[in-house]
Amino acid sequence: MPTEAKNLRVAAPDEIQAHAHALIEAMPYIREFHGATIVIKYGGHAMVDPQLKEMVIRDILLLEFIGMNPVVVHGGGPDITRMMDRVGKKPEFVDGLRVTDKDTMELTEMVLAGKLNGELVNHVQRAGGRAVGLSGKDANLIIARKLGSGSGKTKGPDVGFVGEIVKINAEILDVLDEHKFIPVISPIGVDEEGNSYNINADTVAGELAAALKAEKLILLTDVPGVMRDPSDPTTLMTTIRQSEIEGLAREGIVKGGMIPKLKACSDVLDRGVRKVHILDGRMPHSILLELLTDFGVGTQIIPG
Question: Contact 220/40 with Cβ under 8 angstroms?
Fold first, then answer.
């Protein structure tokens, strides 16, 4: 709280002690993660609700202020759909992928790299931080190719300018880290001919986390985490080991879109990321509660 805002009310002794306890509880985590890179995939309802957006931005800023290096990757599917509706284009999906012709790609780039990216950078800076907005095209950060075009790949349905990542060139992120800027990245890649590609934001966040050897990858979602029974929040699985993922899928405990998400989590752990956290972005301050408290609030995926 700013100095001029202090002492506006008298807090109860129990409330004062609760604040002190929270700070003491956070201390070992602040020490452990000082200087660590934390990649955060920001999407879902937390990007839509103004109050949640403010909380997420403040969480990210606090991580930076106490010595961590947050890197933010944002989605924006609902905004793309709304823009398509405004110009009279009907969204079409194949196997969960947005069919992206040339006009749709132009709209996608305008929404992600222009509107949403600029808004998030503005939110960070209004809250007292320093941010730089990037798309994967900037400094060739994300080199991509058309999805399924790699050698030896089985050709699936043609969904247009949807991409897969060939290479991450993270030098620009090292420069921003050195000067204490928070990178805010839209999930657009570019190929050697200069064509733009729309890439899944979870995939971009995972590849960046692996390239940066991040301490943690955080995926903000619209679910509490991985649950044994989706209708019962008390069945939240707080910790999953890599070796358990296939069994959970085989038994039907995890299904649908959570299966590829967990497999992608396992992949980034193999490539040097120490932990992945799946958090409910609808919960206020879920990032801080997961990283800086003893109990956590989501599902962590760990090696083993």
Answer: yes
